[in-house]
Every structure is written in structure tokens, then in C-alpha cells.
Amino acid sequence: MIQHRTLAILYFLVALLLPLSSQAEPPTDPPATDAIQRSIKLALELLRDPAMAKPDMLESRRDKLRALIYGHFDFAMMSRGAIGSYWSNFTQKQKESFIDLFRQTLEDAYLDKVESYRGKGAEFAPEQRKSARIIILDSHVDLGGTPIKLTYLCLETPQGWKVVDLVLEGVSIIANYRKQFQYLLQQHEVEEMLEMLRKKIESNRQARMHVIDEAKAAEKASNL
């Protein structure tokens, strides 16, 4: 009798505990843009690595930055946005050329600047889902004690979530370039504008290599 009563009490306690365990919060899924956030943080860590800041490592560091970041950007969508209504005037070959040239233009404009980064990293705010396929991702990047707001406009594509615009302190990078490119296309043919971009990119490349060569020479002289 006592044994039966003990079993009854045990069953009663188990019955009480089961609902509690079933009410435990399920594990939360990672943010949709988790891969983007992780890659950006890794890129900033790479930039803070003093070993990668040596002149002999600068090109290798840039290659590593490309590998970390580029896969998370939809350069085709960004290029189309930067050209706007003139996009239909481009042939398929011209579109492909512009996508590559615009990627290099963005690299020259922004990678050169961030390569001197010595801040503490980036903090991401919770995602803001604007629609089923659009997420706004706000971040604050520390620039040596001066935080700046950088917002990523992310679009869901068949290849996953991709960045399609950057908003720096309230200014859209794509909208800013669209003004510049549309002004050029009002004055020049598409092929002329593409050639202007090629020359500008080559000029930037030569200037960058000159800076690297000078840094290598200075380091060599300091070791004598």
C-alpha cells in the first residue's frame, strides 16, 4: 500500500514537471545576416593584426579581405542601382564590364581607407526586417575612439543574404554613385565612360603600388 502511494506521488511530481520542461524556451536561430556579421568582424580583426600591416603583407592582406567580404555583396545588383535608368542602354558585355569596374572602384574608394583601420571593432544592432526579403542591419564601427554609423541594406537572393547598399552616416553609397554616373552618361557614351573608369582604376593601382614600394624601401632602410 505504501509502495503504491509512493509511486502515485512520483507520478504526480513527474506530471507537474513535464509542463515546465515543455515550456522551456527553444534555442534561438542565428540572425539571417549572421554570416555577413561574422565576416565583417573577421575583416576588422585582420586589419588590426600588426603582422599583416607590414609592407610585404599588404597585397596578401587585401586578398584576404576580398575573400572574406566579396562573397557577401551582390555587385551586379549594386551596379544596376548605381546606373539607374541608364542600365537599359548598356549591352550585355558593357554590363559585365561595368560590374567588374564598379567593384574595383568601390575597392579603391573604401578598402584603401579601411586598411589604416586601428579601431576596436564593430557592434551590430538587432536586424530590422523591412519585408520578407529585405533586412536593414545597423552597425557602429569604432575608428580609434570615434564611432561611425554604417548601415547594410541586405537582400535575400537564391545565393543567400547579400549586401546591396551601404549607408554611411545617413548617406547611401549607391545613390551617391548614381548621381555621378548619370551625370557622366549625360555627357558621354557608355563605352567612353567605361574607358574613363578603366583609366582611373589603373591610375589608382599605380599610385597604390608606389606607396607600397616606398613603404618597403623605408622598412628596408630602417633594418640596415
From TrEMBL:
InterPro entries noted in UniProt: MlaC/ttg2D (IPR008869), Tgt2/MlaC_sf (IPR042245)
Keyword terms of this UniProt record: Signal
Gene3D superfamilies documented for this protein: Tgt2/MlaC (3.10.450.710)
Top-level taxon: Bacteria
Signal peptide range: 1-24
Descriptive protein name: Toluene tolerance family protein
